[in-house]
Automatic annotation (TrEMBL):
GO CC annotation: plasma membrane
Organism: Serinus canaria (Island canary)
GO biological process, one term: cellular response to calcium ion
Underlying gene: CPNE9
Protein name: Copine family member 9
Family note: Belongs to the copine family.
Domain of life: Eukaryota
Region (Disordered): 1-21
CDD domains in alphabetical order: C2A_Copine, C2B_Copine, vWA_copine_like
Residue span(s) of domain VWFA: 272-446
Keyword terms: Calcium, Metal-binding, Repeat
UniProt GO molecular function: calcium-dependent phospholipid binding; metal ion binding
Amino acid sequence: MPGSFPRNLLDMDTFSKSDPGGWQSRAGGMFGRTEVIDNTLNPDFVRKFVLDYYFEEKQNLRFDVYNVDSKSCSDFLGQAFVALGEVIGSQRGRLERPLTTEAAGARGEEVAGSDSPCPQDIVTMQLCANKLDKKDFFGKSDPFLVFYRSNEDGTFTICHKTEVVKNTLNPVWQPFTIPVRALCNGDYDRTVKIDVYDWDRDGSHDFIGEFATSYRELSRAQSQFTVYEVLNPRKKCKKKKYVNSGTVTLLSFSVESEFTFVDYIRGGTQLNFTVAIDFTASNGLPSQPTSLHYVSPYQLSAYALALKAVGEIIQDYDSDKLFPAYGFGAKVPPDGKISHQFPLNNNVENPSCAGIEGVLESYLQSLRTVQLYGPTNFAPVINQVAGIAAQVTDGSQYHVLLIITDGVISDMLQTKEAIVTASSLPMSIIIVGVGPAEFEAMEELDGDEVRLSSRGRYAERDIVQPGRCSLGQWPRPAPACTPFLPAPRSCLCPLLRLC
């Protein structure tokens, strides 16, 4: 993330304006400090900070802003709190939060930002060499290449090694792939050093020579061959007529992009989060402590814990924070009919709740008004969300359905059919099991190893991710939405398989 941009800071200096500097910290301690900008109440900090980002975790950040008078004297201006997921999911990569202190109200506002992340570009290239130095007494050479990425401190880190081509001075190496970040860490002009060696069985490989290039220079090979002279510094110093130790030619160079979850969000895809909660009688009477719906004065129910564990992570990426929430498997008022997709807020026209807290409030209210019954049917709510997802298929919307259940599915055939149909739509399903029941059926819906099928049709992709949650234990199942969101704008139809 590229730092932050506080605005309208409190003026702490008598004869000038404040000299703000900032600390960015997280749980466990400070991890970064910006530069100090003199005499301004609206600083633009430019120092960048690199953070490890995990979609499945809630990563809380705290920004502290100070007026720095000297190295030993600083006045605290305020602090702001934000989750990293909120920054990633914010529009245009900018997120505003008020600066506050314990003793006072707002002291200005903090604007945190994140760089627009690049896709994970993968390079495929092929090289050959010509007239390399002969190193073997009874043969020619057994050449191979070693690629090194340069580091900020001037050192080099090995990032790739080609295969060995035996007994030749004119080798042609097989094409290989390497992530751009591994090659140059995203800096297209960073030096890439390539060493040429003659392989020896005992491991004492003979150095033939070296040359340097960059990702930007390599990429020009997409339109023309690029030839590099292989130089041996020692031979160059000793021999006045030394020209080179051969040449290496870049025969081909191509780049493909592998888009990440963040790329989809930054590309404008909106995440829509829907919740479905199991209200069947197998969960036990909500008034009894043995029930999975039982809410004691001291802790939330198993269902509420599961909802918070997943929902509080996903909600950072849902821009409007309005979540449709349904129940299934209960008799609902006023006529007592069994429903498998009743709105928790009792509003058929608008089943959306404000944030995860709104979903929890509606869930608790429904427990007081509906009668737990059965059976446990998943298909109706899956078809409900699939119908909404089918309305917008241009990549601008993606739907995630969270189903929380005690594990016994009554309509397995219909559920499989619904999932196979939904697999061509921009949606995914997270199924979280609570309680001690067996969950083999959930694993059957997961298509990690065997693609789900129904009536001779196979799912176009795996859209189900099962997980399990119990009191005090949450395994953090990977979100099902991340591997197969549509690519940002550029190539939507093939990835969604709609054309």
